[in-house]
Amino acid sequence: MPGAAFLEGDSVTLCTVEEEDLEFLQRTINDPRVRRWVGNRAPINGPAEREWFESIGDSEVHLLIRRDNDPVGVVGLRPADGPDVTAELGIFLAPDHWGEGYGTEASRLVVDYAFAERRFHRVTARVFEGNDRSARIWEKLGFRHEATHREAEYFDGEFVDVRRYAVLEGEWEGTRE
């Protein structure tokens, strides 16, 4: 049974993450095509995925992205530097659903929520070098590229840059009009 619908868009519904979703999340985060872009280097087994699920705090929001009743990914929002100032947004999708617009729509829903209901002033996102699809999501949504942290992560035997994007509440409201 899917988790409760929390936010609804035209093509996706964002639902609470439930215990029954853990197998999908574990399989997806371990997929080599996904884990590189989320900075996950170690394999995640069932108990580790369950530990993550059980450790989610009240200040964090993690929502399963569903298309009809099928899970396609997850989107998360967590305070980055204290309450009510900055939140960091993260997302991953199963590779079979890349390029279908689900990431953009899910991210838009969560940014709306971050500003309207959680009252954050700023939402950030990070993109690892080479993840042009992710960068396009933030650019389409009006996020600005603020910085590039040179050689800030290590993947596949090399250091890669991490680009930081952000949007302020006032800028976001301007894109909604």
Note the topology:
Layout: E1 5-8, E2 13-16, H1 22-30, H2 32-38, H3 46-55, E3 61-67, E4 70-79, E5 86-93, H4 102-116, E6 122-128, H5 132-140, E7 144-155, E8 158-168, H6 169-176
Parallel strand pairs: 5-6
Antiparallel strand pairs: 1-2, 2-3, 3-4, 4-5, 6-8, 7-8
Helix pairs in contact: 1-3
Comma- or semicolon-separated keywords:
6 helices; Aminopeptidase; alpha+beta; single chain; 177 residues; 33% helix
Structure explained in plain terms:
By secondary structure, this protein is an alpha+beta fold. It has one domain: 3-Layer(aba) Sandwich (Aminopeptidase), CATH 3.40.630.30. Helix content is 33%, strand content 36%. The chain is built from six helices and eight strands. The chain has an eight-stranded mixed sheet with strand order 1-2-3-4-5-6-8-7, with helices on both faces. α4 links the parallel β5 (86-93) and β6. The longest helix has 15 residues, at 102-116. The model has no long low-confidence stretch (mean pLDDT 90).
Mean pLDDT: 90
Query: What fraction of the residues are assigned to beta strands by DSSP?
Result: 35-45%
What is the CATH T-level topology? Aminopeptidase
Low-confidence blocks of residues: none
- By CATH, the architecture is named 3-Layer(aba) Sandwich
CATH class: Alpha Beta
Helix/strand structural class: alpha+beta
In the residues, how many domains can be counted? 1
Percent helix range: 25-40%
What does the largest sheet look like? 8 strands, mixed
Radius of gyration from CA coordinates: 16 Å
Order of helices and strands: EEHHHEEEHEHEEH
- DSSP summary, beta strand count: 8
| CATH H level, superfamily name | Gcn5-related N-acetyltransferase (GNAT)
User: Which overall shape is indicated by the principal axes computed on the Cα atoms?
Assistant: globular
